[in-house]
Amino acid sequence: NLTWYGFADLSVLHDLSASGIYANYKFKTKDKNNNTINKDIDIVITQAFFPFSLAIAKAQESNMPLQEWEQEGWATLSNTDVVQSSDIASWFVGMRAKGFKIKQVNYDRKSALEFTLIMKSEKFKLKDASQLPSLKTIGIRRIENKVKNGEFYYLHNRSYEYCVSNVKADEIYNGWLKMNKISKNMKIDIFDASTFGATAMLEDMENKAKVKNILK
């Protein structure tokens, strides 16, 4: 019973694409003195997409065990030379059918026209996610903070672990971060896309706080 914020990155359809949903879960627990305290964790659920015909070559080039990820349920390998936008849209439809309440889906609009049309036909609210470092840094810092506090749960998804391990974040100006790959052949797309979800959640929290203050 959470509000989920979807995200998708379909920028290069003959390569690794990503989708996912992001949410914050609040709960009560006990501290070491048995006092009740409020806690919260961020949860991210992601899915990788890749053309099956290129999976073996890409696994060797970028050290991505795509077929293993598929067997574990973390990847969808399409039987075509490019990732199918319909597969990614169907993933969101399937998650919604399972009961996940997806408020909106932030996505990178490059190469995403077909995806946009399918998602709109399925009545999803979409938002073009800005790639500006000033905005993306918000999502990166949120995830970084939650990880360091032991308040981040990614379901032990190995494809997400893989992408995180390949990220190098460089500070470029006034605390803003720019994500780079540690090596040209490595991939960071799933983690990169998840920052869209974190940013969308924080923006919605901020908007709700503003409305609450206005109504006071």
Walk me through this protein's architecture.
The protein is an alpha/beta fold and 216 residues long. It contains 7 helices and 9 strands, in the order E-E-E-H-H-E-H-E-H-E-H-E-H-E-E-H. Strands 1, 2, 3, 4, 5, 6 and 7 form a 7-stranded mixed beta sheet that branches. A hairpin with a 5-residue loop joins strand 2 and strand 3. It is globular. The two termini are 27 Å apart. The model has no long low-confidence stretch (mean pLDDT 90).
Helix-strand pattern: EEEHHEHEHEHEHEEH
Globular, elongated, flat, extended or rod-shaped: what is the shape? globular
- The whole-angstrom Rg is 18 Å
The total count of helices amounts to 7
Percentage of residues in strands: 25-35%
Measured as a percent range, the helix fraction is 40-55%
Largest sheet: 7 strands, mixed
- SS content category: alpha/beta
End-to-end C-alpha gap: 27 Å
Q: Average pLDDT value?
A: 90
The counted number of beta strands is: 9
Query: Unreliable runs, pLDDT <50, ≥5 residues?
Result: none
